[in-house]
Amino acid sequence: MTRKGILTAFFATALCLVRPGPIRAVCNACASDVVCNGCVTNTDIADGTITGADVSSSAALSVGSMTTSGSVGVGTAPGFKLDVLSTAGSIPLRLKSLASDTGTLLFQMGSQANSENAIVSLTSNEQQSKNLSLAGYSLGNIGHLKLAADQTFITGNTGMGVDPPGSRLHIMNALNNVGTIFALPPIASLPDPSYTHRAVMQWEGGEAKFGKWRQSFNTFENDWALSYNTPYDPVTNTYGGRDSGDSRANIAAVMRFNVAEGDSGGNVFEVHFAPPAAAGVPPDFNGAASYVFFDGKRGDAVTSRPALLAIGGPQDVDTGVQLLNAFMGVRMMIDGVTPYSNRFRIRDFYNGADYMTIQTPNGNVGIGTSAPGYRLQVGNPGDGTQARANAWNLFSSREYKTDIRRVDEKESRGILEKVKALDVVRYRFRNDAEKTEHLGVIAEEAPKEISKDGSSVSMGDYVAFLMAALKAQQAKIEELEGRVQKLAQANVGS
């Protein structure tokens, strides 16, 4: 550069220090004392410092530092203090540090009013870089964190209301607030056959053994449902193929609340277990074990309907219901468990004794027996069971009887002879723990009038049998009295 050029550049630079505006210098590229339009190079600015309100160049510019009181725009007219517009690629801004990776702060935004506490800070320190901290001064100035990306992936634990989180998702609820809300998109009316959000929540993992758990709610007359090892379509009320066919977990199950019917009696709570099958095979809940509770309907004698509890099982498996008081050891059972098929039982849980049994289909009732052979049986044969009451009345009205025939005197005398021939014995029942002594007859030796089966005695017939014998005996007594009276009168006359 000539001496004249050096002086010109000196005065031009000095002028720039006192007056904002574009740089005026002698350009090495064009040797012209004019405003440079994109041809300023590193050689033109030896000290590496530019001070001014505006620097504009279409060519690359590398400087040590730059201070400005205005705005800086890169690729665009600045609308902010720093405004970057990239047309060369998808990344508009890159921040990179060549310093050692020992905690160098790569990026920080803060506020001087908040003592320069970082609102967002990213660091190259390995430990610190695991945390992305979003906070205002005293942690009180930020109300929302919005992630607008289609997907958010977090490799570590996530805590909501708790720090540090102890699991992949750790939620600590605030007092008197709802802890977790799963919201559906707004729909004008439900049920809606076109509604496709059927599995609002799904648990999965370990499908080699276990099936998936799927939770649904507010889907076509189905307020809430939980299915296991099978997807559920509430619109068609059908189930898809099993996730797992492993023999340890290849059943399918569903639990469902339906409260879409109002006061119609059609509301239902149901639980079903389908028998095992291979993976991909849909469950058949019609032949499954089930528990179904139907809501009742209020109304008059015609329109009302009772609440109903229906418990069923597969056709090849017995079905039972147990109401257990484990503390007292008493269990009420309605079951079909072999050999007690189709019975209602109240039994002792510990010793297996049946306190009461109602047997179907014959309707026999047993007290103290599990196999009643009659409409009412108290105890088992030979166990000495006793029953007591203030009165025991037998139906005996003429209205209930047919083929009525009076026992005549001759038949009564025959019954008397049978009574005379029948031995009265003392005995104890073999299985009577109390060894109580009784007085009675042996059924096998008793006349058929009082023992129909040869193992028991009919008390009603027993009493009537003795009455007939008593009448025959009384007739004989009266006959003898008459003869004695005649003899006495004859003796008096003689």
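The above is record 1. Record 2 follows with the same two-line structure.
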Amino acid sequence: MEREIQERLFQFIEMTGETERDFCSKTNIDLNTELTISELVTLAKTYKNMSIRWLLVGEGHAMLDGSFNIMNFHAENVNLAGKDSCKGDLVKSLSTELAEYKAMVRSLTATLEQISSKGN
């Protein structure tokens, strides 16, 4: 499996809170081999909110709905030693998501202010 794709797949597994064993059991995917088209289809069916585009090229969010369940992500259990690009991808993804949430909060705040000012 191409190294970057493999790193993103491990990152996704951590995001779900599953163990590698659970993931492999659920998908029948060998994490040490290159993904096949059939396995990509299996991923898309098994993890409906997983972005295959993110997995393959690293663009956008890991989750199609933009969600990141922080309750399932146990940083203390993540072994990223020697996986600097994986760490960088995670930080970049979280930074992007945080920026999007901040923009959303600013927009909602402005909308609420407009609504309040119309009521007065």
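Residues 84-119 form the longest helix (36 residues).
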